[in-house]
Amino acid sequence: MDIQLKRGLLDVCVLAAIKKEDSYGYKIIKDMSPYIKMSESTLYTILKRLEIAGLLTVRATLHEGRVRKYYHITRAGLGRIQDFKEEWREVMSIYKFVTREDSGK
Amino acid sequence: MDIQLKRGLLDVCVLAAIKKEDSYGYKIIKDMSPYIKMSESTLYTILKRLEIAGLLTVRATLHEGRVRKYYHITRAGLGRIQDFKEEWREVMSIYKFVTREDSGK
DNA sequence: ACACAATACCTCGCAATGTGAGGTATTACA
DNA sequence: TGTAATACCTCACATTGCGAGGTATTGTGT
């Protein structure tokens, strides 16, 4: 899908992916892939960003000899999703503006 | 509204603003302002970009001593709006993913 | 006459961010 | 021995919205 359209969705998608239960990078990409594709470099950049912003916390673990970092959403992260939800009214009004049919033409 | 969310909408909004009838920069901003705010520098950048991409054409006129440039949407521009419309299914599925309630939690 | 808003266009540098290319390391399987 | 899968990461690059700033004309208030 259009890269510009993605920009407003990716952050909040990642948050949504760890909302239900803590998850890790590799799994987040797999879970999101039916809805939205993203490269690994993008995801790890975003995870770092969201951590710095305090929207999630990290906990490193060892799993079958491999490092695995679990991400946990914070209250602020949940707030971010809520904000997104509220902003969606605006988005839909824009969508309607774009797709309206100029009946007279 | 969130600047990242805007990125996917602005181009197509501008096209929608000139779809009904040819319009010019200053008026486009006014027309769109109830739906989405954008600075002049943004708009003129976008108009230039869309012109280069062949999604609209320009016609300079004189109006009460001031230069006024009218923009006209091309077939490709209409196609861009159509593409956006079709991509919206994907966007809505992402929206649902983000806002779903984890019933069991 | 002077100041200021409105109309109408433009350029430039900055900051944010998705991506491909590339890197490191372990486990699983043919 | 080699390749895929798992799992993490860095870096340079291109795109793009925006603020700051610029130019010019017309209209309005003092």
Largest sheet of chain A: 3 strands, antiparallel
Averaged pLDDT of chain A: 94
Radius of gyration of chain A: 17 Å
Please give the CATH class of chain A.
Answer: Mainly Alpha
In whole angstroms, how far apart are the ends of chain A?
A: 30 Å
Counting helices, strands and paired strands, the structural category of chain A is: alpha+beta
The proportion of residues in beta strands of chain A is 15-25%
- The SSE order of chain A reads HHEHHEEH
**Global outline of chain A:** elongated
CATH fold-type name of chain A = Arc Repressor Mutant, subunit A
Helix content, binned percent of chain A: 55-70%
Largest interface: A-B, 34 and 34 residues
